């Protein structure tokens, strides 16, 4: 998915607000004003809204409807059935694919956030006058073609790839290592690389917002570096960490390109199965049920994280 | 920096950050290296310098057609999504109305849906209506997908806009159109330009929607995807990729420089008005 750009910077700033971590100040205004404002605002937003309703909301509703129907060769039977969901959740092939997609995306999010936090911290606290330059350096790779970045990992990890030929020429190994490519690990490495910058930005934004005097206070009160980090910096930057986690997790669950190119047999994820149901030998209702199941699981996980964050924020307030 | 705020610079952190940057850049630098390599395989040691892979791109009609398709789609998507996002961003930042949160939520939804699901749902509706897959369907789909980005860029651009400036201009006898041209537009122009650039770049690189919705007219990423199956084609794909990387870095750097100039101008202006 081509999402991976400096545009997200703006998004990161907007996201904590979007998930309701911060509140907007209410607008004042007389009732009559509000009435006309209401009309003006709704009129102005209506073209955009209609577009999104027609091309996003409606299609998703249709997918949901299809997931409760069944297909007999080429005709769609519109009587309600839960059969597709039974297949999606209990047939070993789909159950395993769903499970693998989830574990891979959680692993990728966890690794990406963990490895990116120190970088965000470094830029925020030691970036000095070059903060913007650092951020620019971090985001440049994101502007290059996603397909080619995945391709490049294939070139690095392949049997005759850069890593193998490099290691053999140094004499560290005498046989190419076959375990590098075409498995879940290759998928994880590639996805971590693709999403690194997206994890850095929201964490950086949340670190920037921290009042430095709080850290100073913790220090003056006798906390050492580690304690002031654990008790002040980390809790205050949690909204950014959660945003980063979600920004990485949601797209990676349904990633199609990476598992296809570097995953091989053992790295197949759910997107491949969904695509197969809409291609040759199509079974739209099953494909729809797989899509809805993925959507529901991702939303549930994201919802739980946002909820936990809100409870946490309320507690420290 | 040391000693301030009790934050001491550690010795290992800069090393770690440098290693991280190497990890980020290495895969991207490999592509141009192998695109000049005089061998069909991507292995070390290198086999000597050649520009033949670049030369082979010129006569490639299929690739040029795909590049043209990408350009058409990118231009249409950036104009359409920026236009739609201007309406929404203006409505959200200027008026307060019921259902505002729900509306913004719907427009931002593509970010919270795995892209394959957006692609599949659009494919179903297009086939259901009996329409042909074409560049038009790609444009319609990618526009939905670009809206959240365009919207967030524009909302942050419009947010700082001081409405009293518009009011003052109207009070001083300027017409509504004149006010828009002389007061509103100069303030919001940078946001609009970045929204256009961002949408264009996203569209240029977008694969899944294009893959599902393009039918017989591939965009560049879909064309590249088709080429990746043939090992022999790899070096020319790398050459094409290197050109695309150079182009996108050029675009981003330009956008960044423009943004900074605008920022400095604003700062200078603010200082002058002190």
**Structure class of chain B:** mainly alpha
Strand residue percentage of chain A? under 5%
Oligomer: heterodimer
Mean pLDDT across residues of chain B: 83
Instruction: Give the overall shape of chain A.
Output: globular
**Total strand count of chain A, please?**
2
Largest contact between chains: A-B, 104 and 98 residues
Shape of chain B: globular
Low-confidence stretches of chain B: 1-6
Order of the strands making up the biggest sheet of chain A: 1-2
Biggest sheet overview of chain B: none
Helix-strand makeup class of chain A:
mainly alpha
Order of helices and strands of chain A: HHEEHHHHHHHHHHH
Over the alpha carbons, how many angstroms does the gyration radius of chain A reach? 24 Å
The rounded distance between the terminal residues' Cα atoms of chain B is 30 Å
Keywords for this entry:
heterodimer; A: 317 residues; mainly alpha; two-stranded antiparallel sheet; 74% helix; B: 274 residues
Report on the structure:
The complex is a heterodimer of chains A (317) and B (274). Chain A has 317 residues and is an all-alpha fold. Chain A is built from 13 helices and 2 strands, in the order ααββααααααααααα. Chain A has helices spanning 7-18, 31-67, 83-90, 92-126, 131-139, 146-157, 162-170, 184-208, 212-220, 225-253, 257-263, 270-278, 284-316; strands at 70-72, 75-77. In chain A, strand 1 and strand 2 form a beta hairpin. Chain A starts with 6 loop residues before the first helix and ends with a helix. With 274 residues, chain B is an all-alpha fold. Chain B has helices spanning 12-35, 52-58, 61-94, 100-108, 115-128, 135-159, 163-171, 176-205, 208-213, 220-227, 234-273. The two termini of chain B are 30 Å apart. The relative contact order of chain B is 0.13. The model of chain B is unreliable at 1-6 (pLDDT under 50). The interface between A and B is large, with 104 and 98 residues.
